[in-house]
Amino acid sequence: MSIDSAKLFELIIAASLINNFVFTRFLGLCIFFGVSKKMETAVGMSITFTSVMMISAALSWLIFNYVMIPLDLTFLKIIVFIGVVAGFVQASDTIMRKVAPVLFHKLGIYLALISTNCIILAVPLINAGEKYNFIESLAFAFGSGIGFALALLIMASIREKLELADVPKTFKGLPIAFVVTGLIALAFTGFSGLIKL
Amino acid sequence: MPNTISYLALIKNGIFKENTIFRLALSLCPSIAVTNNLRNGVLMGAAVLFVQTMVNITVSLMRKFIHPRIRLPIFMLVISGWVTVTDMTMAAFAREAYKQMGLYIQLIVAFASILARAEMFASKNKIAPSMFDGIGMGLGFLFALTVISFFRELLGKGSLWGVPIINAKPLLIMILPAGGFFAVGILMAFFNWVDMKFSRKRPAGASQ
After folding, report:
1. Which of A78, A172, A175 has its CB closest to that of B109?
2. What gap in Å lies between CA A141 and CA A122, rounded to an integer?
3. In sequence order, what DSSP letters do the residues of A49-81 get, joined into one string?
4. Considering only residues 66 to 105 of chain B, which have any Cβ-Cβ distance to chain A shorter than 8 Å?
5. Which of A128, A133, B36, B122 is the most buried (most CB within 10 A)?
6. Does the beta carbon of B196 lie under 8 angstroms from any beta carbon of chain A?
7. Model's pTM, two decimal places?
8. A26-54, pLDDT tens digit by residue?
9. What is the CA radius of gyration of chain B?
10. pLDDT in the model for residue B8
C-alpha cells in the first residue's frame, strides 16, 4: 500500500470544500438544520460526528474488504454498513457512559442522533463505490467530517444572528434557514475546479 | 372498525397534514439532491413510496413477534432489506437515472420518516391501515418531490421531463445546488402562507 501524501491532501480538500457534504451533496440536512441553532451544540456535534465518521469508515472498510469481498456478499453492503454503524454507536454509547461520564454528559445526546444519519452511512458507501484503500478511506472520512463541521459552524453563527432579524412571518424558522443555506452553497460553488482529481 | 373513509383520511394525512418535507421537515437530503429534473424527482418519490408501503406492511405483519427491546434494530433490518430490493431493481431497469442518484436510493435506509412511521404507526396497527398509511406518506413525499423538481426543471432548464417548453434563456441557478435550497425554502414559506390563510377562515384542524 503506497501512501502518496499529496494525493491524500487533495482528497481531504476535495471532500471538505469542493464536494462539501451539506452544500454540494445535500446529505445530513436533517441534522444540519436540527442542531445549527446554537453554537455550543454545533461544536459538540461536529466533534462527535468527525470521530464517529472516521472510526465507522475504518470498521466498514475492514469488514467490506476482508469479509464481504472474499465471501462475495457485496450486495448486502447497505444492511451490513448500517449494522456496523448502529452497533458501533450503541457500543460507544455504553462504553462512554461507564468510562467517561463527563464526556458522555456533553456528547451523549449527539451520539444517539447519529446512528441513523445519512452522512455516516454515505461515507462507507462512497468508500466502497470508489474502491479507496484503507488510508484513502480514512482521509476521505476525515475530510468529510471537517467539511460538515465547517458547514455547521458557519450556519450556527449565522442563525444566532438571524434570531434577532426581522424576517417575514411566513419565512420564519426553517424556510429562511433554507434560503441562507442556498446563499452559502452559492459561495461554496466557488471552490469547484480548485483541484482536478 | 375502519372503513374506506378513514383510509382516505390516512392518505390525506400523509399528503397534507403530515407532509414529510414541507410540514415535518424530515428526509430533506433527496428533496434537494435529486430534484434538478422532473424525471429523477418522480422516480425517487416512487422509490420512497414503494419502500414506505412495504416496510409498513412487513412491520405490521411482524408486530406481534418483535420484542419491544430490540424493535429498532429489527425495523432497520426490514427497511434496509426493502431498500436493497429497490436499489437492485433500479440498477437493473433504470440505468440512466441510477447513475445519477444511486447513492441517494441507497440512503433511503437512513430516512427518519420511514423509521418513524414504522415505529409510530405500523407497529401498533393492523395490516390494512398500515398499508394505507404507508401509501399516504409515500404519496406525500412523491408530491413534494414532484412540485420541487417541476419548478426547478422548468425554471432552470426551460423543459419538463427532458422536453423543452420555454424558449428563453433559463435561470441557471435553479439547477445548481443553491437553487435547490432556494426552491425548498420558498415552497415551505408558501405552504406556511397557505396554512395561515386557511386556518384563519376555517376552524382549526382543517388540513390545507
Report:
1. A78
2. 10
3. HHHHHHHHHHHHHHHIIIIITTTT-GGGHHHHH
4. 73, 76-77, 80-81, 83-84, 87-88, 103
5. B122
6. yes
7. 0.78
8. 777 777 777 777 787 788 778 888 888 88
9. 18
10. 77
